[in-house]
Every structure is written in structure tokens, then in C-alpha cells.
Amino acid sequence: MTSSQVELNKVTAIEPELLKLDTENPRLFGYLDSSSEAPKETLIKELISFGDLGELIQSIAENGYLSIEPLVIFKRDNKDDLYTVLEGNRRLAAIFLLKDKDLARKLKISVPKSLNESVLDSMKSISVYRVKDENEARAFIGFKHVNGPHKWDSYAKAQYAYKWYKEGNGITIEDIANKLGDKNNTVRSLLSGVFVLEQAKRNDIYDINKDRTSKKFSFSHLYTALNRTEYRNYLALKPDWNNELHDDPIPSASLSNLKDILIGIYGYKPDNRPAVVTSQNPDLKKFGQVLSDENAIDSFRNGGDLTIEDLYRKSRDPLDLVKESIVNLNDRLDKLSSTLDRVSGTDSSFLVYSNEFKKKVQKVLIQLDITSK
Predict the structure, then answer these.
(1) Please, are residues 79 and 107 in contact by the beta-carbon 8 Å criterion?
(2) Where are the beta strands (DSSP E) in the chain?
(3) Which string of DSSP letters, residue by residue, matches 42-89?
(4) Measured at the alpha carbon of residue 142, what is the angle toward residues 140 and 145, in degrees to the nearest 5?
(5) Are 275 and 213 in contact, with CB atoms under 8 Å apart?
(6) How far apart are alpha carbons 286 and 303 in whole angstroms?
(7) Residues 318-344: tens digit of each pLDDT
(8) What span, in angstroms and rounded, lies between the C-alpha atoms of 246 and 20?
(9) Spans of all domains in the chain
(10) What is the Cα–Cα distance from 34 to 26, expressed in whole angstroms?
(11) Which of 38, 127, 243, 344 has the CA that lies 20 to 30 A from 297?
């Protein structure tokens, strides 16, 4: 069967060779530059890195390909005679690897040296369901991957909702939330994060695909931060800033501050700077405190090897740090005292350590005495 014989809105069996992977697959957002046409090898390589293709390949090799659920396809353009797979990219990638051992070898994927004839026969043609365009399949695919059995990560969900929202046609955030089976506020947070990243990229402030230092992209760090007061204040955003979303949610005067936030959360490859936020809890809260203090943010902007703990200490009230240190010191002194009660003798180094300890304690006591007056 040729691609011209694939009917709309009907399940049809066709050869996998008539299909191609989707360069705009939501799973790949944040890993590929979707503005360019990535080759098949690149797409499969990225799917391998987080799509658990190994288990799928093994299952098909042992049991054959089961066309229980058809791949959802459509014609994106007329550049070639191939259909783009909207739903089922992992399955198609696994078939490509099993049928093309040279490709599997090139991508360093282990596939069986030989397959049973029944397995080969099962991959000669596979079930597909052709839709007119992405809109026709969007609600079904979105629900399946947002709250259904095959969930995408948060950035894939966000990009899917973003593209849907940007196409307009009168659709609201509430409409998208209802169709995806998710909460309005959740979808709004996801969309807000994408709008901010797109604005940063468009203004050459930060490109999440090129500038971040880590392979893993924790999108939740950003949209969680944008819901925190200290981050909104740093960006001069009102509490209801994302009620009505538009292409430039961040004021132009705050774009340099946005870059600070993105560098802090994701690092900055051009300067070889690692992220200071390594976990959402408690690092995101601590970095928010850093953004609230001029001295701390100046230290952050100057670069160096300061950790989130170093910056956080700079942002805190010195008196609070003193109180905290005294409480910790009292606790450690109690433990030291109880241990000394069980010590029957000392060695020659003990006197050196104890004298140094006395000097430091006396210095702190004098400082505390002066401060309290």
C-alpha cells in the first residue's frame, strides 16, 4: 500500500517504511531544537535516552509486534510521501531498530542477531489511524500522556498544552485543562513556564536547549519558582501575572533578572557555570532568599564556586546566624561534656587542641559581650 491509499479516520495496516518519527514529539522538547529537521538517528538516540526502548525492543523480538493500538498519523507537509507519527513514536523507533541492524549498531543498541519469521512478519505492516491534523487527535493524546497510563514528563505536557493554546481558535486554559483531565491551576503553571522560557529564548537571554549545563532538565523547578513570592518580586511580576498569558509576560526591565534565575536553576554553559539549585527542596527556597538580598545576589552574579549554602548564608540576617550557631554550639558542648566525663587520660596533642579551643571560646565570649551592650 502507498501513502496515498491511507484513508482518513480509519484503521489501516501499512508498511513502517511509510512512516517517520515526529520532530515535534513532546517527549523531545528540551532535548532537541525543534526548529530544525532532526535526522532519524538523532530522534531515535534521544528516545533511547529516556524512553525505555530496550524493554520494548525485547518484547517485540520475543513476541512479535502486536497491533492492538494503532499508531496515530497525519500528513504534516508535502516534502515527502511519508506520514508523521503523532502517537506511537517509541513503537516505530523500536521497529526501525529491529529491522535495521546497521542502525542499531550505529546507535549502540543491542538487538537479536536473528529474529523468528513470525516476528519479522508481524513488522511488515502495522495498524495506523490517520487524522486530518493534530487538532483532531489532540484531546485523546493529551489525556493519555498527562493523566493517562503513559505519562510524559512535565515539560512535554507543558509544550503540548502551549502549542494547543497558541493556536488559538478561542480555546481557553480551562478548556485545555478539562480536555486533558487536569486542574486549571496545574495547566496554567505549566503554560506560564513555557511562555517565560520562550520569551528568554526569543530575546537571546537564555536558551534552555543550548545554555543549561546538565543533561536532565527539571522543568518543575522553574514553574514552581514562578509561583513563589520572592521570585515574582525579583521579576517585578504581580501575583495574578499569569491570569492572562501573552508572549512577553516578563517586563523588559526584568529580563536580566530572569537570566539570573535561569542560571541559578539550570547553570550556564557559555560560562561553564553549574546550577546552584540542585534539588527543589530546600534549594529553591534558599535561592529565593538569595534573590531577596543585594549582597547575596551580587556574590552570585560575580560567579565563582559559591554553593547554595554559601549564598544562603550571605542572604541571612547575621543575628539569626549567630543565634543558630549558639544553639548548635550549645548542643555540641553538651555532647562534648558528657564524653569528657568518660575520659580517664589524655595524650600530648590534647593540650594543644584544648588551648586553641579556649582561645576561640574566649574570643567569641568577648564579641558576644560587646554586641549585647
Answers:
(1) no
(2) 11-14, 19-20, 71-74, 83-87, 126-130
(3) HHHHHHHHHS-HHHHHHHHHHH---TTSPEEEE---SSSSPEEEEE-H
(4) 110
(5) yes
(6) 17
(7) 555 556 666 777 778 777 778 777 877
(8) 33
(9) 3-132, 156-275, 318-372
(10) 10
(11) 243
d(CA 299, CA 222): 22
Whether 213 contacts 267, CB under 8 Å: yes
Q: What CA–CA distances, in Å, run from 341 to 222, 262, 359?
A: 52, 53, 22
The amino acid sitting at 347 is D
CA 297 – CA 224 distance, rounded (Å): 20
Distance (Å, whole) CA 171 – CA 254: 29
Q: Give the separation between CA 334 and CA 344, rounded to whole angstroms.
A: 18
pLDDT in tens, 14-43: 999 999 998 877 666 545 554 445 678 888
Element (H, E) at 158: helix 154-166
Q: How many residues does the chain have?
A: 373
282-303 as b/e: b if 16+ CB within 10 A? ebbebbbbbbebeebbebbeee
**What type of residue sits at position 322?**
V
3-state helix, strand, coil in the chain (%, to 5): 55, 5, 35
**Of residues 345 and 229, more confidently modeled:** 229
> Cell digits for 369?
559581650
Res 7 pLDDT > 80? yes
pTM here is 0.58
